[in-house]
Amino acid sequence: MTEGTDSIVPNAVKGNKKIINAWAMYDWANSVYSLTITTAVFPIYFMEVTSQSGTDIVHFLGRDFKNSALYSYSLSIAFLFIALLSPLLSAIADASGSKKGFMKFFAWLGGISCAGLFFFDSTNLWLGVLCFMLASIGYSGSIVFYNSYLPEIAEPKDQDRVSAKGYALGYIGSSILLVLNLMMIMKPGLFGIPELTTLPARISFLIVGIWWIGFSAYTFYHLPSNVYHRKREGKYLLRGYHELIKVWKELRKLKYLTRFLLSFFFYNMGVQTVMYVATIFGEKEIRLGTAELIITVLIIQFVAIGGAFFFSMLSSKFGNIKALMLAIFIWVGICIGAYNLYEPNSFYILAFVVGLVMGGIQSLSRSTYSKMLPKTQDHASYFSFYDVCDKIGLVLGTASYGLIEEITGSMRNSVLALILFFVVGLFFLLRSMVLKNTEEEMQTEIQS
User: Fold this and answer.
1) 137-108-46-78 Cα dihedral, nearest 10 degrees
2) Residue 385 and residue 373: Cα distance in Å, rounded?
3) What residue segments make up the domains of the chain, in order of their start?
4) What angle (nearest 5°) sits at the alpha carbon of residue 397, between those of residues 271 and 145?
5) Mean pLDDT value across residues 21-43
6) How many CA atoms lie within 13 A of 157 on its CB side?
7) What is the Cα–Cα distance from 374 to 393, expressed in whole angstroms?
8) Closest C-alpha among 223, 245, 271, 290 to residue 45
9) 51-85: pLDDT as tens digits
10) How far from the centroid of its chain's Cα atoms is residue 71's Cα?
11) Among 22-26, 196-200, 222-226, whose mean pLDDT is lowest?
12) Are the beta carbons of 2 and 376 closer than 8 angstroms?
């Protein structure tokens, strides 16, 4: 077993409303990256900037790419990098008690990189790709440390609700900033900005960076920096390596937890890919204009707020696993619907359904994993494996999405292929359901 138990978390930390609110506020701070940079404004801007020659083919690093495929590959490389790096960094953070410091570094990296996109235009594709990748690394790097705070600040019975609160704040905050940015982009004259320029979009990227860094300051002010009072000694790399090996050996013994991670790896591969390419799909396959795409994004965001709490309620009545199974079934239906969808109005209906399950499956996945963890001080190390499943899945998902599009010439075939990810994820989740007295077996494994 890992040294220490949850019982040694100071009472002043666990269940503290101010700390919980500050923790949830980081979702408010960083979700503007997810919405403005990866979903709404930057993908559209990237497509326009890279299509100014009248073709969607761009020359980059000695090779020709479809612009949408280059976008997918950039995400894949960024997330692969952080997936390989985060387990060791998390182990170092656990061993040294410097989790908050790592989280702050990646938050600042992400915020500054978003601001750097202000300088991206058709003359410097390399700068746009580089800042986009660094912003993705900053976001992903900070999230693993952020998620690992959940079992330290909330009791197991409250973790579904607290996780949902974080996602809900993220959806609300990012939607508010998106609306403000869209007003500037669509009515630049109201802000004294020249018409028919890329300046409004580029200013929105700058604002995202400022928002992210600014609001996260509240989080970092209130979050505890070293809950277990670990001694900060030298040889961090060696200690981190040993910590990682120790947690990996323990994780392999927890069959229930490893089955869940395997399931999460596959179904989340589909979820994340849909989230990151939905806007590009709407533009290229449904032929939606900017206004229609923005309406779609806002529908997803606002419905997702209720979706997070709705699935939290379902989990309290039927259990986390059954609620997740329902969400996966709905995601399979979404993929089938997207493949056969051609009308904008139908796309809005699909967006409503996506929003409902997007917030629910993300929030519930995080809290389910948190509640499954053994009593431990090494939450960042355990959550790094959760993050690896998340990021490697996203790498494979976005890469396969771009590859299938390049081979077949259609994004619809890419969407249809995502069904396989959900089906495999559901299969492993069903395998976990056939265990007799799941909760008792999990506790037996944890205590052995």
Assistant:
1) -10
2) 12
3) 11-447
4) 65
5) 90
6) 1
7) 24
8) 290
9) 866 777 777 777 878 887 788 788 778 878 888 88
10) 17
11) 222-226
12) yes
Question: What's the CA angle centered on 398, arms 352 and 47, to 5 degrees?
Answer: 75
**128 vs 131: CA distance, rounded Å:** 5
Number of Cβ within a 10 Å radius of residue 447:
9
Domain 11-447 has CATH 3.40.50.720: no
Residue that has been written with the tokens 């081979």 in this structure: 407
Q: What is the pLDDT of residues 154-203, one digit of tens each?
A: 888 888 889 989 989 998 999 999 999 989 988 898 888 887 788 999 99
- The amino acid at residue 344 is P
